[in-house]
Write a structure and sequence with these properties.
Strand 4 (226-230), helix 11 and strand 5 form a beta-alpha-beta unit. The protein is built from 15 helices and five strands. The chain is of the alpha/beta class and 372 residues long. Helices cover 45% and strands 8% of the residues. The chain has three domains: 8-64; 80-122; 151-367, Nucleotidyltransferase, domain 5 (2-Layer Sandwich), CATH 3.30.420. Strands 3-2-1-4-5 form a five-stranded mixed beta sheet, with helices on both faces. The longest helix has 18 residues, at 271-288.
């Protein structure tokens, strides 16, 4: 009987069980004592058979296991202490490789982004991939034609977000009577942000914030047309086309500006300001709110956070700070990044006095939630 017909090839045996395949090689060699014949029976090379026999004679059955493919020396391997720093930074901040690399460079540790990516992958610290519901990304702006401080996205954020802040943080904020709402305006071109707060969600505060942004920008000599883009919330005028037209004609056009509402349900149109609120949670409210000892300190920290965001913090998308991006187009002082972080509720008496005879058109009060 021809033994070559009885045995499958060595490669086929490896797919079933690697150790058993090598045992067959050893057993056949012990019976035949001929390396060439064993190689022919299992349809492999004499070098392979010889190597299996050599390892078996040296280590016994332990020699039949796969050897480590790890190189004997790794001169370019990331030092263990650097890996530890990368892992700690990831767990502490949740940042991606770009921002981790930037943070480490600021601390005098030069690490490539690719190195950080490999370390995070090796220790299975990569973030979960979240597929966008919008498969095709659409550019809503011609960034080349945009001018700094002339196109703003404005939105309202609830500070007491129970899906973000801990129960302890919310309880601490309530004890200090920290405001409930954050009003945010972000310049699309430079990503400079202006912030204010309030205890009430009202059209009065929304109008006051938008006008404050316009007047603040004008104070630095910006003369171009300013567009304010918001969602359809009542605090920004609601869904009524008549109300929007009235606001533009009577308030915004005299200021060489306009108010624009995005389509209903299309939050992606306000993506810049919406995304910035996540940054507020991760870098301001979560680490800072419990450190505040008074309401006054909260406003002070809010002003410092606005200043840090605009002048110190590198924005990943534009690759520089918002102020540096502004300076690449306009030469303005840093004070242009220091919008007064105020309590809008305290300004309500002023706007009521200033606009006491403003809303005189019939039926206008039906379009608003609050009255002047």
């Amino acid at each position: 009987m021809n033994p070559e017909i009885l045995y499958p090839s060595y490669r086929e045996l490896l797919k079933a069980d690697k150790i058993m395949a090598r045992k067959f090689i050893i057993q056949t060699y012990q019976k035949t004592g001929n390396i060439s014949k064993v190689a022919r029976i299992f349809k492999t090379t004499r070098k392979t058979v010889r190597q299996i026999i050599k390892r078996y004679e040296a280590k016994g059955e332990k020699g039949l296991k796969d050897l480590s493919r790890k190189p004997k020396s790794s001169p370019y391997k990331t030092p263990t202490h650097i890996e530890g720093i990368i892992i700690a930074e990831r767990k502490k901040t949740g940042y991606g490789r770009e921002r981790i690399a930037r943070n480490l460079r600021e601390r005098g540790i030069e690490v490539k982004e690719s190195t950080i990516r490999y370390v995070l992958k090796r220790y299975k610290l990569t973030g979960k991939y979240k597929r966008s519901r919008y498969r095709k990304r659409v550019r809503f702006y011609d960034f080349e034609s945009l001018h700094p401080l002339e196109m703003f996205q404005v939105d309202l954020k609830e500070i007491y977000d129970r899906t973000t802040l801990s129960k302890e943080a919310i309880r601490h904020a309530e004890e200090l009577e920290i405001p409930l709402y954050q009003w945010t305006a972000i310049d699309v071109k430079t990503r400079i942000r202006f912030l204010s707060y309030s205890y009430t969600k009202s059209f009065t505060n929304g109008l006051l914030f938008m006008m404050s942004v316009i007047y603040f920008v004008r104070s630095f000599g910006i003369k171009g047309h300013i567009t304010i883009q918001t969602d359809n919330g009542e605090e920004f005028g609601g869904k009524s086309p008549n109300k929007l037209e009235y606001l533009n004609r009577e308030i915004f056009q005299p200021l060489n500006s306009s108010l624009f509402h995005i389509p209903v349900g299309k939050k992606e149109y306000n993506a810049f300001v919406e995304r910035s609120h996540q940054t507020d949670d991760n870098e301001f409210y979560i680490p800072q709110i419990e450190r505040c000892e008074s309401k006054e300190e909260f406003f002070d920290r809010g002003l410092r956070w606005e200043w840090f965001y605009n002048t110190k913090r590198i924005h990943s998308t534009i690759g520089m700070t918002p102020y540096k991006k502004l300076c690449s187009h306009l030469k303005l002082p840093k004070e242009a990044c220091l919008f007064p972080v105020m309590n809008l509720d305290n300004m309500t008496p002023f706007i009521q006095k200033y606009f006491k005879n403003f809303f005189t058109s019939p039926g206008y009060y039906l379009l608003t939630q609050d009255h002047f």
